[in-house]
Write a structure and sequence with these properties.
It contains 6 helices and no strands. It has 117 residues and is mostly helical. The chain has 2 domains: 59 residues; 54 residues. 4% of the residues are buried.
Length: 117
């Protein structure tokens, strides 16, 4: 298990290094995750230890929300001052996400049927 954790952390580090070298406006961990996806696609799927690590992390996913909650509480005064802008942004981004998801699903279903119109 330690080797798999080291692999995941090494890919995150590689993502951070790539972001700093290229200056692309994407978080390093996201680039690391894309590297992991590429590795898994090339391999044909995850090895059993990586699958177990993923299940363990998903089992404790709620712990990852603690920093976000602390951030919200830390900036509660700022959020109270700008509640309208925050509310509009949350609603707009949710609607945009739903629209993109629906269009992606429609595209994929059409592609599956062989109709790309």
């Amino acid at each position: 298990m330690a080797g798999v954790i080291a692999l995941v952390l090494a890919l995150q580090l590689a993502g951070e290094v790539l972001v700093r070298l290229t200056g692309i406006p994407v978080p390093g961990p996201v680039v690391g995750m894309l590297l992991l996806v590429g590795l898994l696609v090339g391999r044909g799927g995850p090895p059993a230890p990586l699958a177990r690590l993923a299940e363990t992390l998903l089992g404790h996913l709620s712990l990852l929300f603690i920093p976000a909650g602390v951030g919200v509480i830390s900036y509660l005064g700022l959020l109270a001052d700008r509640w309208l802008a925050v509310t509009v942004t949350i609603i707009a981004s949710t609607l945009l996400s739903l629209l993109v998801t629906a269009l992606t699903l429609r595209f994929l279903l059409n592609r599956r049927r062989g109709d790309l119109s």
